[in-house]
Prior knowledge:
The structure is a single chain. This protein has 105 residues and is of the alpha/beta class. Strand 1, helix 3 and strand 2 form a beta-alpha-beta unit. The structure holds flavin-adenine dinucleotide (FAD).
Amino acid sequence: MVTDLASALGAATACSRPVSDVNWRPHHEHVGQTGLAIAPNLYIAIGISGAIQHLAGVNRSKVIVVINKDPEAPFFKAADYGIVGDAFEVVPKITEAVKKLKGIS
Ligand SMILES: Cc1cc2nc3c(=O)[nH]c(=O)nc-3n(C[C@H](O)[C@H](O)[C@H](O)COP(=O)(O)OP(=O)(O)OC[C@H]3O[C@@H](n4cnc5c(N)ncnc54)[C@H](O)[C@@H]3O)c2cc1C
């Protein structure tokens, strides 16, 4: 789901440390205090709580969009835009909208 959105946007993927710790995504994608520091034009945090150690790696992003089903997730405080909702419902809709906008089938 995340790679589909990244591919539609022409974006790279990243992850939080727990995700790379369980080898769900490769270690080189882990951002934060103990991982990479990134500074993209747009960072979309999908199902990331916003722990201080994660924010340390992404707080130089120009625009931060947070998608989280918990309205109290700390990441919303650091977000330029926030969507409260289930990522499994929200993300495919964004991907479809991006594809439509770009004329990708
Ligand atoms: C010394 C030290 C260094 C660390 N360094 C790093 C680091 O470099 N990088 C890093 O990332 N972490 C680091 N951590 C870990 C950090 O403290 C957090 O534990 C970690 O960032 C949490 O990762 P997470 O947001 O993926 O998971 P969680 O905190 O478990 O958050 C998951 C989030 O997903 C949301 N969610 C779940 N299901 C859905 C759904 N279906 N739709 C929408 N939202 C959903 C939940 O509401 C929750 O907010 C470090 C910790 C320590 C102690």
